[in-house]
Amino acid sequence: MVDVSGKEPTHRRAVAECFVDLPPAVLDRLENGDIVLPKGPVFQTAVLAGIMGAKQTSTLIPLCHPLGLDQCDVRIGVEQGRIRIECTAGLVARTGVEMEALTAVSIAALTVYDMCKALSHDIVINQVRLIEKTGGKKDFRRSD
Question: Span 10-135: which CATH code?
Answer without folding.
Answer: 3.30.70.640
